[in-house]
Amino acid sequence: MTDLTTLEAETYQKPRNQWWDVWDQFKTHKGALIGAAFFIFVLIFVFLGPIFWTLDAQYIDIRARSQGPSWAHPMGTDQLGRDTLSRIMVGGQTSLLVGLTAMLLALIVGTLVGVLAGYFKRLDGILMRLTDLFLALPLLPLLLVIIMLFRDTLRAQFGPEKGIFILIVFVIGITSWMQTARIVRGDVLALKEREFVLAARSIGTPPYRMITRHVLPNVLSPIMVSATLGIANAIITESALSFLGLGFPSDFPTWGRLLFDGTDWLQRNPERVIWPGLAISLTVLSVNYIGDGLRDALDPRIRGR
Amino acid sequence: MLTFTIRRLFMAIPTLLFISLIIFLILDLAPSDPTASLPLTIPPEVRAEIRASLGLDEPIHIRFLLWLQQFFVNEPLNLFEQWTGWTIGDGDRTRVISWQTRSPVVDIIAQRMPQTLWVVGTAYVVGILIALPIGIYSAYRQYSIFDQAGTFITMVGFSVPPFFSGVLVIVIFAVQLGWFPSVYDTTHVVVDWDSFVVQLKQMILPVMVLALQITSQISRFMRASMLDNLNQDYVRTARAKGLTETVVVMVHVLRNSMIPVVTVIALGVPQVFGGAIITEQVFKVNGLGHLLIGAIQGGDIPTVQTLTFIFAVLIVLFNLIADVLYGILDPRIRYD
Q1: Which of A228, B42, B89, B296 shows the smallest number of beta carbons within 10 Å?
Q2: Could you tell me where the DSSP H helices lie in A29-120?
């Protein structure tokens, strides 16, 4: 009898949180790990960097214009003598903030539409038609048109920077929720047939509680994967808009805007194009790798193999 | 299959009508004034007359119906007359007129279309031709060095936006090495071998940038699709009955793996047109994307509306083509 209890005590482990399993699987994906480390580095560089690198991004030093890299300006200066390193930092803050908020907006809309369509049969038809319709819209032309047309009104209302920020986040978010909605709907439809949902319904769980307690936690993994893809998509779209001259104004730098401004000085200072371009590409690359690793880590069929 | 295609074609009509309504409403509800860029010295009553001459004093539903009639009835009839030389009715119909150039929008689009089609079409074909072998080989040798390198390159191709890769190749090949021109000259006419070489040279850079993106998308699909099929039972059967490895992979597996890839290729066509907007801007290709950007900046609403709608038609059309292709290629899927 005593033998058995000691044996049980030895083999008994504390119930492991499933997120530790996910982390263990995530760790085995080398690219994802490097990507995550790089993304955290970019976040620190962009948001904490200005504390250590105190040169003002707007400070004009006309005598030091169009310089190459030096100790005073590690990434050189632009045609007005503004320091490129601090402009990259400030620009990165906007680019990443746009990426994160637009992704959040797209996720919220996508999850809402997906869950509602999957859970309530009456809404399914109309919501999925709406999703198909949005998928058939030519997004880049529409984005350009919307920003061109509504830019001045919003600027007058919220100020030049906040107005264009709200507009860009809104239009990117509102045009990129469809994939999330489709994936979430599919998963919710499959979940609805499971026994635990039946059990929960048989004890009289109201739909609201059902969705928040039983459905949402179970569709979290596809949502997380599409979150990473959403960040990458939003950063690229914002830069593309800035590059086409329809994004943020020139005195309010983002990575895309810096790249766009740099193209005029391509022959003299090619590094002015390369730094912001590298920043965009590497950030998006790291986020894509994180998404790749997350997809593997969150898939229980692959996990533990 | 035929009934399915016909049913989908009829389904596409309300979708397209609805999309055209959305585009129309976005453009119309926007607080922009086409006369805003005219000199301030023009008195208000003349301004009102200019607006009336553009047809802006009509109520919104009349203008929408008018645009629908112009785009769906008058323009196709005009094209038909041009091709056949016949005259239907009195042959004098109102057309969608650009506010910037005062010429019919469809004519401008017809002028710009060849440049876009040349660059985009070549890039798409080149991209697919590179992507398929890469996808096949990296699936066949999964986790080999080739596969790892291929995955990395496709990830890079996903992540580097065309406005950076475009500028980068300009810096390298046009500025530093001076091999290729950085600007695409659309007035260039190919008459002999030398001018053909010039045309080839100026196409290399934009095609390279577009093809990089296409390659990375399609080769990933190809790889995933091959991997799905390589572990199937019929592959083991084929090997067991003594077929050579080439036949197993290139005939049995490849044919089955191509089914989803072909639909992805069809679905990707409208996206490439969208992506070409940026590439055309980088290399100053005088195509549809260039026209769209110019029209947006000039507040030329009829052109913007028609072009955006054409992009929407492309998306709906290629979705339909992808669905039909899937039904034809995969006997397990029958829609009727």
Answers
A1: B89
A2: 30-47, 49-52, 84-119
